[in-house]
Amino acid sequence: MTNTITKKANNQSYNIEEWKRGYDSQPNEYEYEIKNIEGEIPSELSGTLFRNGPGLLDIGGSALHHPFDGDGMISAFSFKDGKAYYRNRFVQTEAYLQEQEAEKILYRGVFGTQKSGGWLNNIFDLKLKNIANTGVIYWGDKLLALWEAAEPHRLDPKTLNTLGIDYLDGVLEPGDAFAAHPWIDPSCEMDDGAPCLVNFRVDPGLSSKITLLEFAPDGKLLRRHAHSVPGFSFIHDFIITPQYAIFFQNPVNFNPLPFLFGIRGAGECVEFQPDKPTSIILIPRDPNNKEIKTFSVESGFVFHHANAFEKGSKVYIDSIAYQTLPQVQPNSNYKEVDFNSLDPGQLWRFTLNLEDGTVDRQMLDCRCCEFPTHNPNRVGRDYRYLYIGAAHNDTGRNAPLQAIMKLDLQTKERQLHSFAPSGYVSEPIFVPKPNAEREDAGWLLTLVYDSSKHRSTLAILDGENLTAEAIALLHLKHHIPYGLHGSWCDKVFI
Ligand SMILES: [Fe+2]
User: Fold this and answer.
1) How far is the CA of 484 from the centre of ligand 1 (A)?
2) Alpha-carbon distances, residue 295 vs 206, 209, 226, 318, 345 (angstroms)
3) Model's pTM, two decimal places?
4) Which residue from 43, 185, 322, 347 has the highest number of Cβ atoms inside 10 Å of its Cβ?
């Protein structure tokens, strides 16, 4: 068995030098119709794919310490009548404009980017740079670029010009956080089956305050309620069911001193505590129900959840879990990563028994994976098909994401569409076909960094048959650095 694993691990599907170039900055802003296409864009595919992620990995030639500190750059792919149009713009945050003007780093990054001049020039400088680089969503007729530690920025959905910080019609106060991982409940029981947007904010401290926020399709606030949970919380994502908003409180400690003294970024002061359990917190979405349920499960670190659903007295949660959280170290270089030395993200199912308070956990797949998605009409509901960015090999070791995997949770059948050896995928987004009845009848859109040509390609895959040839490959004229999250909007903005 060991020999098999070693043999597979040695059969490396990627080239680390080629992978690194996907982190080259993209300082240019483009606007053009995509003409270099293999295959055919489905004429029924109508709408806009928005994506967010760091566009700059250096400022004035000074490298950032971590990609998460990179200025947010929004890409928009608009589809209409079998044609596709591309546009990208940096979010014109106050800090982006200041630093581009100065051509140097003026702010400390949460993930360890420091101003020049050593710790003396960084000590007690706690100004946060709202870099708007994590998520993007169109809701209530607003396009919002999201970063979890501060307010969203509003952009014009057609031009991608930044209109400014958006306080959601007074829902947020200056300085308020707004998470980068909202979910759309496709049919909210509290709103007579209308869809609603659910998001949260965390105010961490010795105890942490989690505020739930739900918005109507016109952007108006429907529900807001805050809950205090014991202990420090580092919560990036959450998941919803019709009744609950579910949070994983990872076992971490926060020691702010290295941050205060200008030695580390705030994010580098989060320490994983492997001997402590993870708390799973169920907050009722109905503000009239104050009964929070808390479960405890063996340690692990979860950034992202795939989905959750209720069935009888059980709640099922599918998430990507890591055995340990690798701490970003000062003086380290994120491009010099040894994938083999890091724990992989793996897909787990957590089954919560509401009657006896126990949790059962089961690994659904050992392959290294991240960025799960599924049919958006199944958010919070029992579902059959899960799609996820995955390593090319199923060795169970960490590796760059080079493939999209489809899991049939009923039959356990897996399908893989790999872009190895030269392609590196981003988060897939599932777009249901109009009037589709099958859950997997839809298109999978994923941006692929093609290291052989140093350019990015948007792949349109068949959700029903992932192993088939791509329906279309839309080759851009340039690359887009590895990004974070995106979303689909049925409206076309051309
Ligand atoms: Fe995320």
Assistant:
1) 7
2) 19, 18, 19, 15, 22
3) 0.94
4) 347
